[in-house]
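Memo to structure team: turn this sequence into structure tokens by end of day. - J.P.
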Amino acid sequence: MVKSIYRLTVIACSAFSLLMQYTISSVRANQTKSEFDYNNFGFWSEQCRLFDNLRKYTESLEACEKAIALKPKKKNVLVWTTRSNALLKLGRYAEAVTSYNQVLQTEPNNSFVLTQKCQALSQMGNHEDAISSCEQALRINGNWGKTTPAKAWYNRGLAFKKSAQHQEAITSFERAILINQDYSLAFAQICGTLTDLKRYEDAIKACDNAIENNKNGDWGESSPLIAYQYQAEVLTKSERLDKAIEAYKKALEINPNDAIIWYRIGKLQQQLASYNEALASYSMAVQVKPKFSQALARQAEMHNELKNYQQALESSDKALAGDGIWGDTKLAELWVQRSTALVNLNKYEESIADAENAIALHESNAKAWNNKAVSLWHLGKYKEADKAAIKATGFNNKYTQAWFNRGRILSSLKKYSAAVTANDQAHKGEKAQNNNANRAKIMPNKGVSLWHLGKYKSARQLAREAVIYNRNSFEAKYNRGVIFLRLEQYSEALSAYLKADSISPNNPFVLTGIAMAHAGKGNYQEALKVVEKALNINPDYTLAQQQRGMFIAKIKADLKDKNIEKNQIKNND
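Reply from structure team:
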């Protein structure tokens, strides 16, 4: 066992010649021993530094503390400094500061330690003391070890940057570069600081300088990854989204397993309405980090945009079971996405429950109110639906989808003039955005209300125009069918409904319309066949139930009439 530990130690240190020499000498010195002398201060102090060089900071800390425990009164600056660095790297900043102070009691003029303390204080948010510590290091300017004053200027710059003292930060980073002209990390931080100042062109130049002119520069324990990230951020803020995506992809070439970068790429692709690409990026983020709630929520949103409603529901459930860190994607928005998936899956009661979950978290969420309104409308609760729709349009007066749905609800309440006004509001918004696809949905919806107001010519014209705007619009085809049905133009209604069915097969509303058009043409047997198909899909659809009863009654009446006629003919014979 002991020999195995020695062999692993030697292998791990192969890249570090100095450490290798120590390990070999240690082995030789202990060849006659059956086991390590675990009470040997020198052994643990060397292990402390060894693991530090290997960047195994947990192991380094453990070894340092064992060395200190063996000789607590010994003023071993190297061990205490290494211990402090391990605490810093592990993010235990308050402990690191205390540990650095222990070193400074022995060596108050240790510039390196003061610089490291500066970094720890800055990470704690104590920027004023951090700056003071860095400035003290620069004034003393001694005992830097393997580093240089450039590190102190750099850490001073970070503290100023985090405290939003941008110009002082830039000055500090520039001083660091004067000392170390290959300090690429400092160039990258200048880029980030200039971005904060909204000096986007200068920021891009600074990032380019870090990446292009300093490919072999001094990145410390960082890498060009940080420069690409800053570059992507400034390009995003200057609305050069395609270029920002390219920068993030360069970052992924360095670290393809960065879930945050995949997430940010997805957000940019979503902004560009590249929903398939965005979905793929969010999926990669989730692949790297399976419990990534924000990415799962965005994934659900993309599935909804692409009408993958079952997948949207599944992603929503995974997001709820994830890490619970919502960041820029709020929990209320996730409930909205889940509600959206459910309403499109005809699960209206569940959709209402999720919409109310969203409203409880964010009362002014117009999308949640809209989902509630739509679900209530589908359940035939028109008055309640109207109240929810009023909330949706009240919280967001430019929410065209909510105005569209309010128009449908008002039409169901037989408030046709108000429905026309609501549809006009929706149409105005979509026209301003030049969204012809949505205009194609709104126009026939308005046409139905106009028909009820006796404006038949206008209703027919809107139905025709809707198809021109979007030949593949389901709503245009469906509502055109509704208008022609009510105009008793059954052949035209049947044609429109059949086209709607080709876009959205097995839709109970469409199938019922097809059945009614067949009935209008006197084909009750076919009408019964189609309406029963609609009821198989949605047994609770009231209109389909009513029409089925009417068709059966008509078929029976026709059969009775035929029997009477047959008997009359027989009697005449």
